[in-house]
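[step 3/7] fold_predict: job queued, chain A
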Amino acid sequence: MKKLKIGIIGAGRIGKVHTETIVQSIPEAEVVSIVDLNLLEAENLAKKFNISSYSQYYKDIMNNPEIDAVVICSPTDTHAQYIVEAAQAGKQIFCEKPIALDLDTIQNALDVVEECKVKLMIGFNRRFDSNFKKIKQMVVEGKIGDPHILKITSRDPAPPPAEYVSVSGGMFLDMTIHDFDMARFIVGSEIEEVFVVAGVMVDPKIGEAGDVDTALITLRFENGAMGVIDNSRKAVYGYDQRVEIFGSKGMIKVDNNYPDNHNYYGQDGIHASLPLNFFMDRYMEAYANEIKEFSQAILNDKQITVGGKDGLQAVRIGLAAKKSVKEKRPVKLSEILQGNDLLISQQ
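[step 4/7] structure written:
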């Protein structure tokens, strides 16, 4: 069986997840090289999974003719550059979100991908979770009729360092971006308006870095549906990931995943397990499913289901959310344009 030869750029947390997933769960793919500016990180990850090639220079992957595809797990500010260089090198591309923090840079990368006729998949892994895929399937089948109200709860178990939010684009572009993509995916309609109420309730240092850590977001979709997302950087009981969609014929909801389903009944009350603690536990199956789709799309020349335009639109929604917080008003997506108007939305 022909295998897709993959180079991993970035040996940090998500790079480790993808490397382990490919090695252990994707027989049609093979990691042949890992690079990271921290050579020791690259070396340790390579040795852990018996990968012979590792380096601290990303161009070693771009220039390696053996490598068919790159998986970009590096910091956000490198994503667009690596996409462009990988496309120009004829590599197929999987990139973690977001592509970049401004629309012009994203659009330039997408234009190069199209010119070079390579495939680009964006890492919105939640689309590949079996629970959320089931919701999407049932919505498409008309089980709830016309979608009316979408509710997404997404709360992390612990906040990131304040230094991270200052370079990640903030909560709306590094955390809520997944929820924006899920909203488009499940409802099956574009978002036309965003209104956000947000604050700093978890870590004052996040506020000092210019970000928020708690938010309520309302959405209006082009098809008339409405949505609400609630986010927090800290849920003391674990990783809180719930979705509910209500329509003219019924409702579908998905609760959290748990390590077991026991319920203990005693004199001191009724007790159950806490939700799975973080994304590495909650979404491991989804990570495997998305890389499997990517690999099969390349090997069999099939269409990617979550591509560059999805990445662009999710960032546009995130910028609208940031503008809504700053200006304390609903913001239409039509206000978030490429070029000079974009600069206004980021101030």
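[step 5/7] annotate
The chain is about 40% helix and 25% strand.
Confidence is low (pLDDT under 50) at residues 340-347.
exit 0
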